[in-house]
Design a protein that fits this description.
Creatine Amidinohydrolase; alpha+beta; three-stranded antiparallel beta sheet; 16 strands
């Protein structure tokens, strides 16, 4: 493994291992999506994920995570409902028809990590909520398209921001994407906003977790007393999509995408 200004450049062997863990991440996240229905609690979804991790003999990088003095995270998934932006802690809350649910999930296996997130409707939802989900997913797609050798790091966030704001939404600034590999969070930070043409040139072998968080109203968020759950400051809806993406000779490769998933 080589480094370019501390950004890891993965070898072919390392990339193969990241494909394997990415596939596992995507498969389990798909099972979570299928299990999320009206009447299901977010704790029950956490149990589904925990059972899959144990069955596959995989590790959770979320459980017990507590950087910078934060309390250890108590679950293997983040389940954020409606105005919850990220890091919603699973519990007794029952999902209701009309909710939107953001599921964020990671896997560690063989010393490598995968990280992915999706926002899904719980039963029929409002047209406004669906527009938010669609715009957020589209912004992720546009960000991924910038993962090409020779582009600049800021091109990713600029593309995300342009798509989300063109649809009338705002992009969260407080939380960003990140490099990923032997650690869940590695350099660089990958903001979902900014001007294009700035920062490190992208190289084949770099792997990033691209994760736009997009709000209906203000981009500002606040963190609840549990020190984890981030909600929109104005109580409006938020959506979150994420994929682990590698830069290859053939362009961007989404390592956490599986058939039937986003």
């Amino acid at each position: 493994m080589k480094y370019a200004d501390r950004i890891a450049v993965r070898s072919r062997i390392e990339m193969d291992r990241m494909r394997e863990v990415g596939e596992q991440t995507g498969e389990i996240l798909l099972k979570l999506r299928e299990a999320a229905k009206p009447g299901t609690t977010t704790a029950e979804l956490n149990d589904v994920a925990d059972g899959e991790l144990k069955r596959r003999r995989l590790n959770s990088p979320f459980l017990g995570y507590g950087p910078g003095g934060l309390p250890p995270y108590p679950a293997v998934i983040c389940a954020s409902v409606n105005d919850e932006v990220v890091h919603g802690i699973p519990g007794s809350r029952e999902l209701r028809e009309g909710d939107i649910l953001s599921l964020d999930f990671g896997v560690e296996a063989g010393g490598f990590h995968g990280d992915s997130a999706v926002t899904i409707p719980i039963g029929p939802i409002s047209e406004a909520a669906q527009r938010l989900i669609d715009a957020t997913e589209d912004s992720l797609t546009d960000g991924i398209e910038q993962m090409v050798k020779g582009r600049r790091l800021s091109d990713i966030g600029a593309a995300v921001q342009k798509k989300a704001e063109a649809a009338g939404f705002s992009v969260v600034r407080q939380f960003v994407g990140h490099g990923i590999g032997r650690q869940m969070h590695e350099p660089p930070q990958v903001p979902n906003y900014g001007r294009p043409g700035r920062g490190q040139r992208l190289q084949i072998g770099m792997v990033f977790a691209i994760e736009p968080m997009v709000n209906v109203g203000t981009e500002k968020v606040r963190v609840l007393e549990d020190e984890w759950t981030a909600v929109t400051s104005d109580g409006e809806l938020s959506a979150h999509f994420e994929h682990t993406v590698a830069i290859t000779e053939d362009g961007p490769e989404v390592l956490t995408r599986v058939p039937g998933s986003h």
